[in-house]
Amino acid sequence: MNKSLFLGFMERVLAFPLWIKQIIFLNLSKDLVNYLSNEFLDVQEGELFHIYKPILSEQGQNELLTKESKFDESIYSFLNCCSKGMSLIEIAIENNFTMEEVSKAFTFCKTSGFFSSSVPNLVSAVAGFIAGKYRTGEYFIRAGKMTIEQLDKVLNKQQELNQSGKHVFIAELMVQMGYIRELDFKSIIFMKEEAGKRFSLNPDDVPTIAMEKENYDIRVENTRLKEENEILRQKMDALLTFIKDHKEPEKNEENLVSPEPSLATNPIAQEDRQAQPAEPEEQAEKESEFTVKLKPFADES
Q1: Same domain, 188 and 298
Q2: Which of 24, 85, 87, 244 is placed for a possible disulfide with 51 were both Cys, Cβ 3.0 to 4.6 Å?
Q3: Over the stretch 270-295, which tens digit does the pLDDT of each residue have?
Q4: Which SS3 state, helix, strand or coil, does residue 56 take?
Q5: C-alpha to C-alpha distances, 156 to 143, 171, 233, nearest whole angstrom
Q6: What's the confidence (pLDDT) of residue 214?
C-alpha cells in the first residue's frame, strides 16, 4: 500500500532536528491550551477522533465491492480508504475532504452498519457533533461528561428563565450549574468551526534537512583531497628551499677560481669542449627539475 500524504508529511516533520521540534512543541502547546481542554489534550490515541481508523464489516466490504446501494461517490471513496487502513485525518487529506465531510461520511457508515468494531464513545460523540447530528447537550452525554438527569435539570432551568423573560443558552447554564467547564464547551465549538476548513497538503512545501548522500560524499572527499594537496605543497616548498640553499655556495666557489681561456679565443679548447660529454654537475642540474602531481578534486556537480 502506498504511503498516504499525511504519513509522508509527518515523517518529514519528525525528521526535523530536536531543537526545531522542541520550539514547535512549545509554541503549539501555548496555542492549544487556549482552545482545547484536557479532554482533547490528554486523550488516549485510540479515542482521538482524527486518527481513529474505522474497520469495515463484511457488509461494508460488500457495499464497497458491489456499490449496490448507489450512494454518493464520496461514500465509496471513504469506504475505500477505510479498507486500506487509513485514519480519518488521512482520509480527509487524501481526498481533500474537510473534517466536517469526513464526520458526516463516518456517521452515515456507522449508522449503516459498515464498521465491524464498536466505536469509542468520545470518537462517536465528536463525529456526531461535528456532523450536526448531535446538539450540545447530547454531545456531552455521549462523551460521558454529563448524565441525562443533569441535562433535564438544565433544560428545566432554561425553561424557567425563558418564561421570566431571560434568554440563556443551554451551554451557559451547564457551565453555571457546574456540570461542565467553560473550556470544555469552547473546545468542542472551536473544533466544529475548524472542521469546516479544507486543508490541502503538498509535501514538497515542507522544509527538508536531508542532504543527498552522493553530494555529501563528494564534499567530504574534496575536503580530504584539499588537505592532502596542501601537505604536498608544503613539502614542495621545503624541497625547493633546500635545493636553493645548497646551490648558492657552489656558485660562490666557482667565482673564486681563475677563469679559463675563452672558447672563442681558443679553438682547440672549443673542439675539446664540444667532444666531451656533459659534466655530472650539469647533468644533475638538468635532472633537478621535477613536478609534483596534485590530486584532482571530485566533481561537485
Answers
A1: no
A2: 87
A3: 545 554 555 555 554 444 444 545 55
A4: strand
A5: 22, 13, 95
A6: 46
Return d(Cα 82, Cα 96) in angstroms, integer: 15
C-alpha dist (Å) from residue 169 to 33, 174, 186, 196:
24, 9, 13, 23
Cell readout for 10 is: 509527518
56 beta partners:
115
Cell of 205: 512545501
Same domain, 30 and 138: yes
Q: Tell me: do 241 and 188 sit in the same domain.
A: no
* 154 is a domain residue: no
Q: Are 157 and 147 in contact (CB under 8 A)?
A: no
Domain-located, residue 265:
no
On whether residue 271 sits in a domain, the answer given is no
Euclidean distance between CA atoms 291 and 7, whole angstroms: 58
Of 59, 80, 58, 76, the closest CA to residue 67 belongs to 76
Q: How many domains does the chain have?
A: 2
